[in-house]
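ARCHIVE CARD
CATEGORY: sequence design from structure
SOURCE FIELD: tokenized fold
FIELD CONTENT:
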């Protein structure tokens, strides 16, 4: 009997050593929240610890509290917004100045449909709080005068960024809101981190409506990213099959909204009207190698609608898929190559 236990112990030890020593791949799954959304990680690793998942969570918390939050006093955006009106401007980090420059470039190319200075209008609608249930009761849209006043305090063209000297001049009453690109920036930071971790062989990380794929699955199968059906959000209308590293961002009128008197007020604002954008689109998915770009373009394309949005995506070499409010789909060639329909009929 003793000999049997000794043998079993010996075999058990060998197996444990093989699993670690032979570089066997195991999966870590983790869900957390940051930036007002759910973060889902699936990592394939030869390491026997879950450190990578914890470090990714920490990295996202730091991105929110140190850089992007407009609520937390510790962030760069908060500090910048608090400086509005200061003649001497405010110092900005090199990395933040570079992000802002990219935002301004997209604003220019999108005919100002994309505008990260919409803070005053976004706060006036406060759709995040209504959509999350933080605010309850009867929703009343902002009145016309309040909206006009808030709109008058917006406009990327009014910002002055002196990248060389690291200074930003934000006119009185203005404020930045990087909600349209925050999740994409998060994907870029996660990608940088993963590229430095030799033990990670593959990963998918979803930050709300933005998904990063990286490396490969142990069985070599492609990554599968679902496209939500805007008319029935519990279902996917199609699947993207992706090899290796990609960023996929979706903007939809079903993501954050409140309904009153049969009207859906969602969180993507047309800077011309100050109202939720009404371009005929219910959802836009953008596929690129770059998280910032996929997130920025998904928001801009939603506001522009399929015809102008398709041209904008083309300018940046991005693949795009539009779902119109009537359920019909328009997509670029490269998107068609990776898309498999699951429920809907394609109209183009
Ligand atoms: P996207 O289409 O990518 O972006 C829509 C968002 O962009 C809007 O919500 C608005 O913020 C902004 N926007 C609207 N119109 C335009 C436009 N024309 N041009 C440019 N930008 C526009 N949500 C919460 O409920 N609670 C939180 O505490 C919270 N904290 C956050 C902290 C950070 C650092 C970030 C990045 C996001 C946070 N959010 C929070 C979510 C945020 O407010 C947005 O709702 C979210 O980022 C929208 O992402 P999306 O992918 O659904 O939409
Ligand atoms: Mg976006």
């Amino acid at each position: 009997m003793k000999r049997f236990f000794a043998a079993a112990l010996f075999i058990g030890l060998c197996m444990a050593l093989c699993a670690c020593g032979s570089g066997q791949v195991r999966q870590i799954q983790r869900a957390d929240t940051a930036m007002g959304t759910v973060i889902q990680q699936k990592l394939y690793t030869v390491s026997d610890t879950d450190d990578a998942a914890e470090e990714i969570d920490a990295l996202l918390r730091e991105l929110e509290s140190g850089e992007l939050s407009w609520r937390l006093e510790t962030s760069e955006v908060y500090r910048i917004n608090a400086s509005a009106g200061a003649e001497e401007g405010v110092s900005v980090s090199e990395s933040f100045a570079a992000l802002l420059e990219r935002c301004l470039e997209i604003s220019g190319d999108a005919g100002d449909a994309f505008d990260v200075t919409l803070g005053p209008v976004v706060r006036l609608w406060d759709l995040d709080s209504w959509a999350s249930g933080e605010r309850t009761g009867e929703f009343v849209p902002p009145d016309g005068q309040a909206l006009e006043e808030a709109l008058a305090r917006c406009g990327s063209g009014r910002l002055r960024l002196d990248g060389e000297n690291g200074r930003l001049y934000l006119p009185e009453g203005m404020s930045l809101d990087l909600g349209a690109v925050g999740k994409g920036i998060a994907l870029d930071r996660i990608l940088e981190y993963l590229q430095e971790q030799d033990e990670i062989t593959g990963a998918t990380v979803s930050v709300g409506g933005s998904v990063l794929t990286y490396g490969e699955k142990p069985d070599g199968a492609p990554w599968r990213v679902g496209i939500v059906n805007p008319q029935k959000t519990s279902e996917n209308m199609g699947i993207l099959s992706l090899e290796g590293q990609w960023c996929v961002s979706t903007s939809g009128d079903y993501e954050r909204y409140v309904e009153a008197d049969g009207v859906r007020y969602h969180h993507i604002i047309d800077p011309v009207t100050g109202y939720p954008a009404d371009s005929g689109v219910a959802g836009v998915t953008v596929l690129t190698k770059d998280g910032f770009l996929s997130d920025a373009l998904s928001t801009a394309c939603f506001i522009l609608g399929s015809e102008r949005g398709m041209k904008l995506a083309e300018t940046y070499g991005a693949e795009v898929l539009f779902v119109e409010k009537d359920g019909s789909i328009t997509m670029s060639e490269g998107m068609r190559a990776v898309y498999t329909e699951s429920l809907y009929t394609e109209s183009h």
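CARD ANNOTATION: DSSP finds ten helices and 16 strands in the chain. Residues 35-36, 64, 68-69, 71, 114-116, 118, 122, 128, 132, 177-180, 182-183, 208-209, 251, 255-256, 267-269, 271, 295, 298-299, 303 surround flavin-adenine dinucleotide (ligand 1) (CB under 6 Å).
SHELF: design records, drawer C
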